[in-house]
Amino acid sequence: MASVELRDIRKSYAALEVVHGVSLSIAEGEFIALVGPSGCGKSTLLRMIAGLEEISDGEVLIGGKVVNPLTPRERNIAMVFQSYALYPHMSVAENMGFNLKLSGLSRPEIDKKVGEAARMLALTELLDRKPSQLSGGQRQRAAMGRAIVRDPAVFLFDEPLSNLDAKLRVQMRTEIKALHQKVATTSIYVTHDQIEAMTLADRIVVLNGGRIEQVGTPLELYRTPANLFVAGFIGSPA
Ligand code: ADP
Ligand code: MG
């Protein structure tokens, strides 16, 4: 795991700036929830941290090192999306081991890592199945398994549960919490679900129109929202 620091990050698409100078320090092992209305720049920010989107201005540091010039693979970051993006023709085990194979790990090493992750995520019985033979929750666990086997320094989640029904979301939320307690990987978790943010996060970052409105613990945001926008978003009585 590693610390993450954003220094005055900006993003423009053509002449239009959509992220306006975001700065944030995230400690090793911290779980950050990133919340805000649709279109406020959450995914863009994650994609810049992951190296999937060019940074227009500013610096991203991981483990104290500027990573702007590095490729996604070199950044050692794992990203979990709402669409599971599993390879349909591969089994769960093959999906989970695919990136390890690309990195040149031996078959026994791959099997060991996949086996460990499968136990952690209750996927052991499902390793031979194809994604089409899994439920939504099982697919999301397989996608997380594929991310975990790489021992990433940082986990990025982009609304990973938004395609699941309410009951499954609650269950997966508990599993993600348990997983973070086990592996303690620094995590940034985008969600539009306040309850998810409040229950999972060490600190919540409220983004609005490409700017940070407030950063604080769930209790701080609830008790002392910086403004009406935060109060409205967190649902406090203020
Ligand atoms: P969120 O994830 O918070 O819903 P996004 O990061 O997806 O928001 O988008 C932030 C803003 O950037 C939006 O106004 C969106 O329309 C714009 N945007 C995102 N991707 C592109 C793109 N490839 N080209 C132009 N504008 C984009
Ligand atoms: Mg988004």
Residues in β-strands, percent: 25-35%
Helix and strand element order: EEEHEEHEHHHEHEHEEHH
Q: Count the helices. How many?
A: 9
The general outline is globular
User: What's the end-to-end separation, in Å?
Assistant: 37 Å
Bound molecules: adenosine-5'-diphosphate, magnesium ion
The residue ranges in which pLDDT falls below 50 over 5 or more consecutive positions are none
Number of strands: 10
Mean pLDDT, to the nearest integer, reads 92
Rg of Cα set:
18 Å
Which range best describes the helical content: under 10%, 10-25%, 25-40%, 40-55%, 55-70% or over 70%? 25-40%
Q: Strand sequence of the main sheet, in spatial order?
A: 6-7-8-3-9-10
Structural class: alpha/beta
Q: Characterize the main sheet.
A: 6 strands, mixed
Oligomer: single chain
Write the layout of secondary structure elements.
Blueprint: E1 4-13, E2 16-26, E3 31-35, H1 42-50, E4 57-62, E5 65-66, H2 72-75, E6 77-80, H3 92-102, H4 107-120, H5 136-148, E7 154-158, H6 166-183, E8 186-190, H7 194-200, E9 203-208, E10 211-216, H8 218-223, H9 228-234
Parallel strand pairs: 3-8, 3-9, 6-7, 7-8
Antiparallel strand pairs: 1-2, 1-4, 4-5, 9-10
